[in-house]
Design brief:
single chain; 41% helix; 16% strand; alpha/beta; binds adenosine-5-diphosphoribose; Leucine Aminopeptidase, subunit E, domain 1
């Protein structure tokens, strides 16, 4: 299994599944949620609205994950997972850990071979990037220890939108920047 840390926009990642730091309503929001819906086009919101009208009338609780199509995105699926919102007292790191592991379960069940994660929780939901990065690293490594020989996933991409998050991911996953990245950027 290969782990990449990249600086950029998750909507541009060439992977099978991209993970959305979703709003529990499943009806979009700001940040990653906004970028994914904007890039996917109206079909994504239409599919989410259908979920609200059928299987998920109350939306999706923090820590859970579900997949939809990806509309106009290069990915095949979007995996929506609401992170815990520190501003309303959701400060249990286990919930954030579940965002990563449940997204891997969902992607694996779909037969995805690659998945891209944003720094779930590190924006509007108020988690420190270094905490998100260490929770993500622990969750992802632990999951692959159990499933590396049975899952279809062989590439995990951590997408950092800014320098602080990139540094946090690199520290937590212990992957220094390559010589060319240092010289030419990400
Ligand atoms: N690609 C990759 N990362 C991004 C992008 C993007 N296009 N846009 C933002 N980010 C980064 C942010 O800089 C932050 O580091 O993703 C991380 C998560 O930020 P948010 O999107 O704010 O997610 P979160 O903190 O989990 O809050 C989710 O905010 O936008 C609403 O509807 C959303 O209610 C939900 C809440």
């Amino acid at each position: 299994m290969h782990i990449d840390i990249v600086r950029g926009d998750i909507t541009e990642q060439k992977v099978d599944a991209i993970v959305n730091a979703a709003n529990p309503s499943l009806l979009g929001g700001g940040g990653v949620d906004d970028a994914i819906h904007a890039a996917a086009g109206p079909s994504l919101l239409a599919e989410c609205r259908k979920l609200r009208a059928t299987t998920h009338p109350d939306g999706l609780a923090s820590g859970l994950a579900l997949a939809t199509g990806a509309g106009d995105l290069p990915a095949r699926w979007v995996i929506h997972t609401p992170g815990p919102n520190r501003h309303v007292g959701q400060t249990n790191p286990k919930t954030l850990d579940k965002c990563f592991t449940n997204s891997l379960y969902v992607a694996s069940r779909l037969g995805a071979t690659s998945i891209a994660f944003p720094a779930i929780g590190a924006g509007a939901y108020g988690w420190a990037p270094e905490d998100v990065a260490s929770i993500a690293a622990h969750a992802i490594h632990e999951w692959f220890e159990l499933y590396v020989h049975s899952t279809s996933i062989h590439r995990v991409v951590l997408v950092a939108y800014n320098e602080e998050v990139e540094a946090a991911f690199r520290k937590a996953f212990d992957t220094p920047r390559t010589e060319s990245q240092l010289v030419h950027g990400p």
